[in-house]
Amino acid sequence: MSAAPIHDAPRNDWTLDEIGALFALPFNDLLYRAQAVHRANFDPNRVQVSTLLSIKTGACAEDCAYCSQSAKYDTGLERERLLPLDEVIEAAQAARSKGSTRFCMGAAWRNPTDKNLDKVIEMIEAVRGLGMQTCVTLGMLTEPQARRLREAGLDYYNHNLDTSPEFYGNVISTRTFQDRLDTLQHVREAGINVCSGGILGMGETGTDRARMLQELANLPQHPQSVPINMLVQIEGTPLYGRDRLDTLQFVRSIAVARILMPKSYVRLSAGRTEMSDEMQALCFLAGANSIFYGERLLTTDNPAADHDRALFERLGINMETGELQADRQACGGSGH
Ligand code: SAM
Ligand code: DTB
Ligand code: SF4
């Protein structure tokens, strides 16, 4: 079957056949189409950057088979309590001084308690006070919790589908795919921008990658931000030692994400320390237009900020300066 036309409005009814046809295109044809979609919707030479901070590390009750922070696996990670507010502010200021416009705080929780949320709300308010956009990733949320975060002025909530519904059970047993969809619904309905994507290279098939992207693209509204992570293999986790995903398959997945969700930011996320500059350049050509910026992700390394700035310079890419609040709910799928 032939692949869908290029300048379509955002759709939420992608079939697996259509997505399979995109993946089956010759590489150059796929990248050409993705770049055309990208140019129709974004400045092709601009990349948004966010900086991550783990505000509560380790001892997580969930069993995500990729994760350094699950209490179920011995990964040698020290557990830490919730960081004090002044340390969070310090880290956000340092990120801002390096040019980061969004600060993303992650906690190794199955879900936050209401008391936890009080503390996180103080952090959100303080980071907003620095003029930065805010994002948090805290696990599952109830409807009232999502509303409280919205009232605190939170810009983005990250909660990934992680993989296809079919492969999901091979990776996580302590919460369901439907639990994740429910949290995304609570976040969306509270009016917070949704950041949701997944991980590639966990041993999933090409069909699983297509199905994951289909699930994301067919949500009632496209996530405003779609992180595509390459598995960072952590010693002690069940996924350690998996065969690496072919790098060009990773680039193809970015291109397909760009075509399916034309107005979403596609984030080239974890795994960049193992990617060559040339592979990252291909990901930007395929339509990736945001990254995590700064030496650390949550518990693992990320390329040095200097290295990323040099790469952007070589590619003629500008970092998005970010207008606080301006992009709240500004893009997404149908329903607008
Ligand atoms: N505990 C919260 C949760 O799981 O919703 C928030 C933090 S969790 C670390 C956020 C996401 O990071 C996961 O959903 C997963 O997609 C990604 N991630 C975690 N460990 C990873 C790894 N080793 N490699 C690639 N991505 C990873
Ligand atoms: C996402 O999709 N990737 C980020 C962010 N959302 C929270 C996390 C990546 C974590 C990589 C492994 C680690 O540093 O622990
Ligand atoms: Fe916990 Fe999140 Fe890691 Fe899963 S990904 S084990 S929920 S910190």
Q: The biggest beta sheet, please? A: 10 strands, parallel
Broad structural category = alpha/beta
> First CA to last CA: what distance?
30 Å
Number of separate helices: 10
Q: Round the Cα radius of gyration to an integer and report it.
A: 18 Å
The total strand number stands at 10
Helix content: 25-40%
Low-confidence stretches: 324-336
- As a percent range, the share of strand residues is 5-15%
Succession of helices and strands = HHEHEHEHEHEEHEHEHEHE
Q: What integer is the average pLDDT?
A: 91
What are the distinct ligands in this entry? S-adenosylmethionine, 6-(5-methyl-2-OXO-imidazolidin-4-yl)-hexanoic acid, iron/sulfur cluster
* 3D shape: globular
